[in-house]
C-alpha cells in the first residue's frame, strides 16, 4: 500500500465506538495510529460499514464524523470529516451507566479478593 497520508500518525490504543444507522447500530473498536486528519481502527471482526459514520473516542470523550478510506483484514482507515474541534460525546444512557457500574463492582470484588489472598499469603510467610 502506498503512503498517501500527509500527516504522521501517532500510535494510540484508545477504545472507540463506531455508530451508524442513525445511532441504532454500534460496534466497538480500537483507535490506532491517529493523526489530525484520520486514524486506523482495529475491529474484532470483519463487517460491512457505511461510507460515513460517527466515531466516538471514549478516552478523549470525542465524537467525530468520519469517512471510510480503506479496509484490510480486521482494520479500516478513516478520515475525519469534521474540521472543527471534535464535539464531546453524548452523555451515556442509563443502561450504559448501570452496565459500567456492574463492571466496576465486579472488578472491585476481584481486586478485594486478590488483596485478601495476598495479605493471607504474606501473613503466612
Automatic annotation (TrEMBL):
The keyword Coiled coil applies. GO terms for molecular function: cyclic-di-GMP binding. Residues 10-85 form the PilZ domain. Keywords: Coiled coil. Residues 94-121 form a coiled coil. InterPro entries: PilZ_domain. This is PilZ domain-containing protein. It comes from Methylobacterium oryzihabitans.
